[in-house]
Design a protein that fits this description.
- The structure is a single chain.
- The protein contains 8 helices and no strands.
- By secondary structure, it is mainly α.
Length: 162
């Protein structure tokens, strides 16, 4: 778009968000760059990011893990009750749940966080069907857990290096 710089500089935060979402949707990187570049800069004081940022990231990751477990649960239900002859896929989803949880637990333990303590937080938002499935999980696959944990560790290292 060919918009005068003064227009960009006077956008409200809400207007800037709408314009950014629209630019992202149409893959207009130059428009997005203009929106970012003309956004007013503010200075804030906050708690140490290595504490507050990591805490926020841990909570977001916990929600992502729960979302993944819910997705696996939906896949299991679909496989067992809707699609015929799909038991092997349901078993694979159960295995993935076990592997993901084992990797998450290992990452938490490595950070000095008791997985049972995090479980108290996440269990409040967990669907009862997921809880029922968790009671029937197979043993985690060590190789799959290592791969999953490696990815989680890389993400956490990036956050910690900020």
């Amino acid at each position: 778009m060919n918009i005068k710089p003064a227009i960009y500089e006077n956008l409200s935060p809400a207007q800037r968000i709408v314009a950014a979402i629209e630019a992202i949707a149409r893959k207009d990187d130059s428009e997005l760059d203009k929106l970012h570049g003309t956004c007013p800069k503010k200075h804030y004081m906050q708690e140490d990011y290595k504490y507050s940022g990591m805490l926020q990231f841990l909570m977001a990751q916990a929600v992502a893990i729960e979302n993944g477990l819910t997705g696996h649960a939906l896949s299991i239900i679909l496989c067992l009750y809707v699609m015929p002859d799909c038991e092997d896929k349901a078993e694979a989803c159960m295995q993935r749940m076990a592997d993901d949880l084992a990797a998450w637990s290992a990452v938490l333990e490595n950070m000095g966080i008791d997985p049972a303590v995090m479980e108290k937080i996440t269990s409040e938002v967990r669907h009862p069907i997921v809880n029922a499935l968790l009671e029937a999980l197979p043993e985690p696959n060590e190789e799959a857990v290592k791969r999953c944990r490696k990815g989680m560790d890389e993400i956490f290292q990036k956050v910690q290096s900020v």
